[in-house]
Description:
The complex is a heterodimer of chains A (279) and B (183).
Chain A: E1 2-5, H1 6-22, H2 26-35, H3 42-61, E2 71-79, E3 82-85, H4 88-102, E4 127-133, E5 138-145, H5 147-151, E6 154-158, H6 163-175, E7 185-193, H7 195-206, H8 217-230, E8 246-256, E9 261-268, E10 275-278
Parallel strand pairs in A: 1-3, 2-4, 7-8
Antiparallel strand pairs in A: 2-5, 5-10, 6-9, 7-9
Chain B: E1 2-6, H1 11-16, E2 22-31, H2 34-46, E3 58-60, H3 88-93, E4 98-101, H4 107-116, E5 119-122, H5 128-132, E6 135-142, E7 151-165, H6 172-180
Parallel strand pairs in B: 1-2, 2-3, 3-4, 4-5
Antiparallel strand pairs in B: 2-7, 5-7, 6-7
Amino acid sequence: xxxxxxxxxxxxxxxxxxxxxxxxxxxxxxxxxxxxxxxxxxxxxxxxxxxxxxxxxxxxxxxxxxxxxxxxxxxxxxxxxxxxxxxxxxxxxxxxxxxxxxxxxxxxxxxxxxxxxxxxxxxxxxxxxxxxxxxxxxxxxxxxxxxxxxxxxxxxxxxxxxxxxxxxxxxxxxxxxxxxxxxxxxxxxxxxxxxxxxxxxxxxxxxxxxxxxxxxxxxxxxxxxxxxxxxxxxxxxxxxxxxxxxxxxxxxxxxxxxxxxxxxxxxxxxxxxxxxxxx
Amino acid sequence: xxxxxxxxxxxxxxxxxxxxxxxxxxxxxxxxxxxxxxxxxxxxxxxxxxxxxxxxxxxxxxxxxxxxxxxxxxxxxxxxxxxxxxxxxxxxxxxxxxxxxxxxxxxxxxxxxxxxxxxxxxxxxxxxxxxxxxxxxxxxxxxxxxxxxxxxxxxxxxxxxxxxxxxxxxxxxxxxxxxxxxx
Lengths: 279, 183
């Protein structure tokens, strides 16, 4: 068994939180720069130029790209051949807390969702997903994400008889709300699995590189079609009108029950924050 | 049109602004978001004084990131305005003249903007490092217990904002949506 200490996990999580918040995902920056060639709205072009300028400033001045430094989603692929010395959850939360304290990142969590809504003051707990995989490595992906894109997300148990048409209709309906999610957005779609898992599929779809396609040609074609249709909605950069509403649509599908067609749609904003490391 | 405007806003300035105009704002902005709005409206309902006078002022829907040492302000940018829709008409009735946020507003807010001759500006979300560079001074004014949701008094210079909804019913979100829609 390969031994990895919780101190190492904490150090990596802290670095990833700082990097993700200050340095825009390189593939997102590239897609945003390319989108200047498609945008026709003067306001839209100005917004895209601001986004590019902001990415440069944030990286050079070590400032967060967006003031909403979000809650922190952590996706861990834990190799079965690893013996972890210490508590994984504690180690991750310690890394998040240190990054948010020392990096002047905004603490954006409240302890109780309805009653007092008092800020936890340290931006933890992180929302952690662990997948056990073969091998003796740990892959960690950190995705801090703001409240605006979360609020525009939706999950629905669609009628099986509706098929792909129902999925398209649902995605396009949810995309109408993208104006509040700092477009141009990345659209993550989960289809299948169960009520609790389909949201996670949509979130994991957001993690994919912007330039890739779903390996299944039918889903790849659906990604292309939905992207084209979303970019005809007229929502545009910052929702102020234009052609560039989404940078990509990513679909993740999974087997489901014979009676079910779960679907979930979520967004990442243009300030796409994500960083990963392999230990 | 492009305008350079100063706070406090006057009726004349507000009446001139049309949806789609770009502005550079110089003067004072007050940050307030969800919980600060709730407190302001509770004070109004109890007939108690507010932490700042609303007349002619602009509220910026924002919860800044902490300020690093030797900087005036940490990253700061607009949050989604629609969460404040319920509170907005009463603040406008008590003299508020402008708001800066992001995203569309409710029909009730639009009606109130027309009724009280006020304006809603959009600033770009997610470009908070850039927007913080227009802030020349910042002061924690009220509700420090709310952390990032506290009210800050900001002095800004040439802060870039687009007129999103004017006092004449013009709504840039709707107008441009129609203009650029291809279906």
